[in-house]
Amino acid sequence: MEVLSKETIKPTSSTPHHLQKLNLSLLDQIAPPTYVHLLFFYQCSSPELDHSQLSLNLKNSLSHVLTTFYPLAGRIIPHDSCIDCNDHGVEYAEFRVHACVSDIIYNDPQPAELQKYVPMEPYGLLESHACGEVIPLAVQAPPHSEDIGKVVTKRFVFNKEVLSKLKKLGASAEVTNPTRIEAITAFLWRNLMIAFRQDAKRERKEIKFVACHAVNVRSRLSPPLPAHSFGNGTLSATAWSSKKPVNKDEDEHNSYAVLVAKLRNAIRGINHDYVEKMLDGERNGCMENPCGDQVDNDVWLEVYIFSSWCRFGVYGVDYGWASPFGYRRLVCLSRM
After folding, report:
1. Can you give the pLDDT of all 336 residues of the chain as single tens digits?
2. CA dihedral 34, 306, 280, 264 (to 10 degrees)
3. What GO molecular-function term can you cite, just one (predicted)?
4. Which residues pair with 37 in a beta bridge?
5. Is 52 helix (H, G, I), strand (E, B) or coil?
6. For residue 307, what is the DSSP state?
7. Which site among 55, 146, 265, 330 is 20 to 30 Å from 249 CA-CA?
C-alpha cells in the first residue's frame, strides 16, 4: 500500500464561541466504546477520470461538512462527558492499493484479510459511537484498554433459500412472520448457547444467556426524530433465555421459535415510554438496572451482542464514483 498524501482538513469557518462545548446526551454517554471501519468499493466510471480534481472536491466538501457538523472536527473530553468543538479537524489520507478492487471483494475475503486495506493508524476511517453512529469520524484514537485476548472475526453468508427456511422454522402462534433479523439473530443465539453448554469446561449450574440487540429509536419516539438526526439514536433490547439447560435435543423452553418470540418482544419494548422512563430515572439520579430481577449471585450470565446494518442506505454513498458496488465493515472492540 503506497502513501500518496496525508493532511488535516478543518472547517471552512470557525465554530462560534457559544457552540464550542457540546454536552453528550445520555444515549451518547452509554454507547459502547466501539469503532467501525467502513470500506466502500467503487467502479472506475471512466478511465479519463481526473482523480486529483475528485480528491480536491472531496476535501472541499469535507471542509464544508465539518462547518455544519462541527462536533466531528472537535475532540471528546471523556471525563467531562462533552465534546470540545475546537475545529482541530479530521485526518484525510490518500493511498494507492496495488491490487484489483474487484478481486478483493468478489473473492469474499474474511475480515482479517480486509484489515490490510485499512491504511491509517490506528484504524483508518472510523465511526465513533460516542458522537455519531453511522457518521464516519476519527475524533480520537481507540482508548487504551487491557488485553482482551484473541478475538476471532468471521463472515457467514445466508442465502435467500436458507433465510426463507429459517423464517419458517422460527414461526409460531406468537410470531407468525419472523423478520430476517429476528430469524438470523435467534439462530446465532441458540447455536451459541448450545456451543457454550457443550464445552466441558463450563460447569456452572445456573446459566442465563442474554441477547442484546441494538435498536434504532428514532422512529419509535413520539414525535419521531428525523431519520438523519445527528448523534446516537440507539438503545439495546435485552432478551433472556430460560435457565433450563440447552442440549442437542430440542428444549421447549429455549427452542428456536421461543427465542424468536423473546427477541421480538424485547425489540418492541424499546419505545417512547421506555425511553421516557429511562430519562426520568437519569434525571432523578436512579437509573434502572436493565437486568432488573433477572440476576442473582448464583446465576452466570453469558451475553451476546447483535446489531444490524440493514436499511442504513450505505449503497447510496456517492463520493464522485456513483454508488458503491460493495462495502464491508470491520469492527474494533474495546473492553466495556
Report:
1. 788 899 999 999 999 999 999 998 888 887 776 677 788 888 877 777 788 888 899 999 999 999 999 999 999 887 888 999 999 999 998 888 887 877 777 777 777 777 777 765 533 334 444 545 443 333 333 334 445 567 777 888 899 999 999 999 999 999 999 999 999 999 999 999 888 877 755 555 678 899 999 998 888 888 888 877 777 888 889 999 876 555 545 466 689 999 999 999 999 999 888 888 877 765 555 445 555 555 566 677 889 999 888 877 777 888 877 888 877 776 554 433
2. 170
3. acyltransferase activity
4. 126, 330
5. helix
6. -
7. 265
Contacts of 185 (CB under 8 A, 6+ apart): 211, 213, 263, 306
Cell of 193: 448457547
**pTM for the whole thing?**
0.75
